[in-house]
Design brief:
This protein is α/β, with parallel strands linked by helices. 29% of the residues lie in helices and 23% in strands.
């Protein structure tokens, strides 16, 4: 199977459409959560991902939008955007988000695990450094762990012989060979990258060729920003899109 792996769309329909146009041929989508939050197109994004063979888990903003997470946990701008999102979502799309699990597995033997944050804390933990990665490698028996949440394209590998984690720098368009390796893989964010690159970020997982390939693609940031302004969403959330922060 060839999967397009996406995360943290954050109601950014122009970014999502750019990813779908840019992606090589794929069989299905894996979505690692946070379809909504921050951006201006929650209904369009929830509905668009359902046009495909989809495996989807929930993120913290998805849960906040449907009352499964306390909105007071979020910062002021995120709370304001979530309140707007709650008012905008249709009943059908609220129902879809309520039905999502915060974690899952892709294969029957549970070797490929999905979590928005981590297996230890599926919704809230950020795996952004070797320390957090090490704890999850040691506590769980996955071969591959696919996560989002940080909005950063990251790879961590467990080195069996040294019993430690190394961080790898994913290069767009360069396949990472998966065979026999224990890895934590983050495709970055479709709708709100935070690595200083405003281009939408996603990955391709090929379970036959056993490769993971990061991709980046531009999208019309100004269209998303104008829609956010028109809906009165917080200025900081608007401005950060153009700088990828």
């Amino acid at each position: 199977m060839r999967y397009i792996v996406i995360s943290d769309i954050h109601s950014n329909a122009p970014a999502l459409e750019a990813v779908l146009r840019d992606a090589p041929a794929f069989d299905a989508i894996i979505c690692l959560g946070d379809i909504v939050g921050y951006g201006p197109d929650p209904n369009a994004c929830v509905e668009r991902v359902q046009d495909f063979d989809l495996t989807c888990i929930s993120g913290n903003h998805d849960q906040g939008a449907v009352g499964q997470a306390d909105v007071l946990i979020f910062n002021r701008d995120a709370r304001e955007a979530l309140s707007w999102t709650q008012r905008e979502l249709t009943e059908a799309n609220l129902g879809f988000l309520r039905g999502l699990s915060p974690s899952g597995v892709l294969d029957d033997d549970g070797r490929i695990v999905l979590a928005h944050g981590s297996p230890r804390d599926p919704v809230w933990e950020y795996i952004v450094d070797p320390s957090a990665a090490t704890q999850n490698f040691r506590q769980f028996g996955f071969q591959l762990l696919l996560v989002g949440h940080s909005h950063l394209p990251l790879i961590f590998e467990w080195l069996y012989d040294q019993q430690r984690v190394q961080s790898l720098r994913p290069e767009p368009g360069v396949p990472v060979v998966l065979d026999g390796r224990r890895l934590i893989l983050n495709p970055g964010s479709v709708g709100q990258p935070r690595d200083g690159n405003p281009q939408a970020s996603y990955a391709m997982l090929d379970t036959e060729a056993l490769t993971w390939t990061l991709h980046r693609t531009p999208y019309p940031v100004e269209i998303t920003q104008e829609r956010m302004r028109a809906n009165g969403l917080p200025r900081r959330l608007i401005d950060r899109l153009e700088i990828g922060r």
